[in-house]
Amino acid sequence: MKRVTIQDVAAAAVVSYQTVSRVINNRPDVAEDTRRRVWQVIEELGYQPSAIARGLVSKRTYTLGLITADFSDYFFTQVIVGAEVEARKQGYFFMLCSTERNPADEPEYLRLLTERQVDGILFARPSTEEDSRHIVSLIQQDVPLVTTAYWLPGEKLTVVDVDNIDGGLQATECLIELGHRKIGMITGPAGWKSVNDRAEGYKLALSRAGIPFDASLVEYADWSYQSGYEAMHRLLAKSPQITALFAQNDQMAIGAMRALREAGRRIPDDVALVGYDDIPAAAYCHPSLTTIRQPMQRVGEVATQLLIQLVNGSAVERKEVLLTTELIRRETCGS
Amino acid sequence: MKRVTIQDVAAAAVVSYQTVSRVINNRPDVAEDTRRRVWQVIEELGYQPSAIARGLVSKRTYTLGLITADFSDYFFTQVIVGAEVEARKQGYFFMLCSTERNPADEPEYLRLLTERQVDGILFARPSTEEDSRHIVSLIQQDVPLVTTAYWLPGEKLTVVDVDNIDGGLQATECLIELGHRKIGMITGPAGWKSVNDRAEGYKLALSRAGIPFDASLVEYADWSYQSGYEAMHRLLAKSPQITALFAQNDQMAIGAMRALREAGRRIPDDVALVGYDDIPAAAYCHPSLTTIRQPMQRVGEVATQLLIQLVNGSAVERKEVLLTTELIRRETCGS
DNA sequence: GTGAAAGCGCTAACAT
DNA sequence: ATGTTAGCGCTTTCAC
Question: Is B320 helix (H, G, I), strand (E, B) or coil?
Fold first, then answer.
């Protein structure tokens, strides 16, 4: 099954293969007649131009790298969905790179991506405290780069993210409005920017309401159901006076609900709850979870648009884009 | 920032660039001395061979296509995770192709993938009743192809899947052992092989226990929480005598639980439940969900292994691989 | 408007 | 053990 090449098309259409190239690239300087004939032959032979050969000479692969860390993370999975749709719309593909098992592999993956001459790289993974020298190095090499929810202080980086401070604020204010004063918080892992920002929103809401911040009402966890469950038990043990909880994601909120039930606390009568993410389960767990919805697919979409702009060399106007969140009221807040 | 090429390395190492090629491809016929010198220059210059140029001549891109339909589907997302890890282990990348929005785009995506000369294609999406001519055409063109949970009757296709008949059997038997006779079922959408197989397992279990199959105990849904919720309400309306339910996935099971609560049925006292998938939420919803766990990452892993074997031209011994499921007992079965 | 020539960066014979 | 000669399939000058 020999592949049909541009030369085969040229021969069959009785033109030079350069003319065929003009036709498939929609160059203006081809006679209408020739153009039609060539297209017809292309159809007949089922010719497909080799993206590889094109890439070799044009230095453009129309392929982007996609770095992700964790497919069980709802936020980033949705970002990828949005990114993929937008990329396809503009004729790009993503090469998938998941560092699921080992974040330390990232530099190596990046090397392999540049070896494959991707036109740009999208980071759909969180800010952590991992070493970031390899990313700084990419920036210095002027590799088009956009990140979602990943910030590198001091580096000029195009970032698309959600306004987590405002999200934390909304979540906490919702509980304050219900009259709560002893509002606990279960956070994600230390070192994440989103964790700090949501916590900042939480503190901001408290201070606006004149409620002093009480560190004994805060527990760290790791985003998982199990960790939320355990954190809630710790929280109940050390601060039994708690009447409301802001969990920094829905999984931990649902885990916490289990712990609350085990401790005999009714939801929302004894303890009200707000989560974060609006995962599909949030509307169907029992009781259904009040939460902060984030425009995750939109984040991926915007990030990809900016990335492709960078690839095309057009100056990207904004370096940082923050999208807004929305409070979704459900039963855990007594609705 | 001009890219360093093989020629630059050759010049700096004072050898022909063909020798450099030998070095980077680990050919035996290079003097140890030369080899060392070349490697050193490569390091110094930060040379990265162009995968594009290599691909052009060698006809191998070490890139695979990945067709997926829906990132909110836990099964396939996990398959992708397993596939990605295995691919990386063997030096391959996946080009991501999600037909999320419109399954009808698939033929076009496939065309774009072959244009990019992927070495093979993995289908991580379900069997549906969509037109499959474009896939048959790929098979005829001898494009290496492996599918997960996607069957094309009559075509010789390498498929990796889970034993859904046995899964349905285990789920139903678990309920029968608890003494239930009026066992309902909420299925996924008609036309899916996994839906038919799980239903077959359900019927098999009933018949083995001497319980007649009762069509009024079955409702179709579409895998979503909402659809499970609605199906359960319909089921309760038409067959109130129901005392147990097998939901063909966990999302529908959790949706059904909400409907049962609304109808005043206690779980598991009035109605026992078994789901399918063991999504992370299953262990944390209330009550926690008995379910069938599937080795999803393993499916992706095995599928990728087989695909790469096909790419390498080594005859793949088995054309169909079925992995086994496991019953996870939790509170919805009164444990 | 079209063809001829050159070259992208590399691998694969074939020499020596 | 190393260099030389081709050529992968295409785009891009530069002629005509």
Answer: strand
Q: How far is CA A137 from the centre of its chain?
A: 22
Query: Would the Cβ of A180 be found within 7 angstroms of any atom in strand C?
Result: no
Same domain, A257 and A302: no
- Strand C positions closer than 7 A to protein CB: 1-5, 7-13
A231-244 pLDDT per residue, tens: 999 999 999 999 99
Q: What is the pTM of this model?
A: 0.93
Q: How far is A33 from chain B (nearest CA, A)?
A: 26
Only one residue has tokens 């498939």, namely A24
Residues with Cβ within 8 Å of residue B20, at least 6 apart in sequence: B6, B9, B10, B13, B38, B42
Q: Are A135 and A280 in a shared domain?
A: no
What phi and psi, each to the nearest 5 degrees, are found at residue B105? -75, -10
Using the predicted structure, report yes or no on whether residue B131 has a pLDDT greater than 80.
no
Q: How many domains does chain B have?
A: 3
- The residue segments making up the domain with residue B14 are 6-49
Q: How far is A208 from chain B (nearest CA, A)?
A: 34
Tell me the per-residue pLDDT of B318-335, one tens digit each, with 9 for 90 and over: 689 999 999 999 999 985
The answer, yes or no, to whether residue B317 has pLDDT greater than 90, is no
Q: Is residue A289 part of a domain?
A: yes
